[in-house]
Amino acid sequence: QILARHPDLHPLYLHDVDLEALVNDMNSSLESLYSSCNTHTETAPLLHNSHVHTPHHGHAPHRRGPRSQRPTPPIPLSCPQERLCRSQPVHINAFMRLQEEQQQCRPSSLPAVINPFPELCTPTGSPILSLIHTTDNHVYSEDGAGKVVEVPADMRARDVCQLLVYKSHCLDDNSWSLVEHHPLLGLERCLEDHELVVQVQASMTSDSKFLFRKNYAKYEFFRNPLNFFPEQMVAWCQVSNGSIPQSQLLQNFLNSSSCPEVQGFLYLKESGRKSWKRLSMFLRRSGLYYSTKGSSKEPRHLQLLSDLEDSSVFTVTTGRKLHNAPTDYQFCIKPSKVRSECKELRMLCAEDEQSRTCWMTAFRLLKYGILLYQNYKSPQQRKSPVSHFSTPVRSVSENSLVAMDFSGRTGRVIENPMEAQNAAVEEGQTWRKRGHRMNALGSPSLLHPSSLSSVIHRTQLWFHGRIIREESHKMIMQQGQVDGLFLLRDSQSNPKAFVLTLCHHQKIRHFQILPCEEEGQMLFSLDDGSTKFTDLIHLVEFYQLNRGVLPCKLKHPCTAVAL
Questions:
Q1: How far, in Å, CA of 506 to CA of 504, rounded?
Q2: Torsion sign across C-alpha atoms 251, 253, 255, 259
Q3: What region holds the PH domain (predicted)?
Q4: Cα→Cα distances 518→40, 271, 433, 504, 533, Å
Q5: What is the DSSP string of 164-217?
Q6: Partners of 371 in beta bridges
Q7: Where are the alpha helices (DSSP H) in 404-535?
C-alpha cells in the first residue's frame, strides 16, 4: 500500500522513510474520502504497535523528525462524535489475540521463562522450563556412620552405589548394594539395581534408612544355579511332579511364557498370634499359594497368600525369639504400600538355609524376570563413560615384569630363568638376615619384625578384630552366603591366636590360626605347623591361590566400609 501511494520510493529504501508520517498521510486521505461520501467519522490514526491515539483539539500530534525531506501534510481535526469506519491489517489483530490466548493459558504460578528446547517439555508445547526435583537421602554404613546423598528422581540404586563407591574410595567390584532397612519391623532387603531410590523411599517410614554394604550373593544364582535351586523344590506348573532339567532351569524363570513353580513346606505365622502353622506352599508367577488340604495342588484347594507385583521379599533380622519362630530361617513378604502395619506382613519360616534361599531367589526371579539378567550383565558391558566411578586398575600385566640385576653401575635384565630364581632366593635370605640383625641390635618396636608381623594384618579390610562368633555369622549372612566368603578375627579362647571364618555351601565354618615360633621368629599356621607364614597377609594370599586344608579357596573378603 505504501508503494502504491508513493511510487517514487524504492523498496530498498523503505527503512529510511518515516513510517509514522506515511501512516498519518494515509489516514488523512481516508478521512477526506469518507467525508466526501457524507459519512460521520472520527479520526483514529493508527500508530506503532497497533495502539490507537486520538489527538486533542488545537494541538498537533507529536511527530519524530522525518529522515526523508518529503513534507507530510497535517492531519485534519474533526469532532469527537464523528467516527471513521476503516479497516486495520488483519495480521496485527490476529497477533494480538494470539498473545492474549498465550497469556491466559500460561499458569500464573510458574515463572515466565522461555524454554529454548520446547520439544523436551512436559506437557508437549509448554513454554515453561521444568525443574529437576532431587531428594536428600541419608545412607549409613555398618559402623553407623552416615552420609547425605542428593538423589534425583530418576536415579537408580546402582547409580547411588557407584556414587558412594567413588566418594568412599572403595574397590568397585559390582558387589555393593543399597539395603532398605526397617529397624522397628526387623526387616531388610537389598534393592535391585534398576529400582528408583526415590520411589522406594516414599514407602519408608521416618525410622527406616538405607544401608551401604556388600552383597556377593546378589547374582550368584546366575553363576551356580544348582546351589540355589534344589531339584526337589522346582517343578513344572502344568506337569505334575515333573522336574525341570538343570540346563533349562534359569531359562524357565526368565522366560515369561513358561510356568516354573517352586514347591515345599513353609511355616506361616498366624495373624495376631505367635503360633505358626506348617503348610504346603506353591510359588508361581501369579503369586504365592498355600494348600488347604495337605499337599493338594487342585485349584479348589489353593488359597492366594500374596501376589508378586505389589510385594517385596525381606529377610528377618530380629531372630527367632521375638516371633517365637520354629527355626532361624525366617523371611517376610511385605506389601509395598504397607509401612508399619504388622498385620499385613506375611511372616514365613523355612526348615533350612538352602530352602529359604531358594524361596527368596525364586520370588525375585518371578517378579522381575529378565530385568535381573540385564542387571547382572550390565557391569560387564559397561565401558569408559562411567569409568571415573571405578578404581584404577593396574595396567601392567605380570607377564611383562622381568628380573633385573642392579649390582653394577647399570642395571641389566636377567634372561636366564635359573639365575632369576637364585636372585630371588638370595634377596629373600638377605631380608631375613637383616631382620634378625635388627632384632639382635634391639631395634624399636615399630621396626621389630615380629612386632610388625603381629599387627600388619589390622590394616586389611578382611580383619575385624575382637568380634564374637555370632557377630561374624551375622556379617557373613548379610553379605551373602557364597562359597569363599571369609573374614579373620581375634580368637576368644586364645588371646595369641586368630580365627578364620569361611562360608562353604551356605554353611559357616571356623578355623583356628595358631602362632608358632621358629628360630626366634613368630610364625602362623592353619594346619598344625605343616604350612607356616610370617604374617596373616601371607597366609590369606596363599589360601586365595591354594585350597590346602580348607573346603574351598578364599574368594570374597567380608568388608565393612566407613562412609
A1: 5
A2: positive
A3: 259-368
A4: 127, 64, 14, 33, 11
A5: HHHHHT----S-EEEEEEETTTTEEEEPPTTSBHHHHHHTS-TT-EEEEEE-TT
A6: none
A7: 417-440, 449-455, 469-478
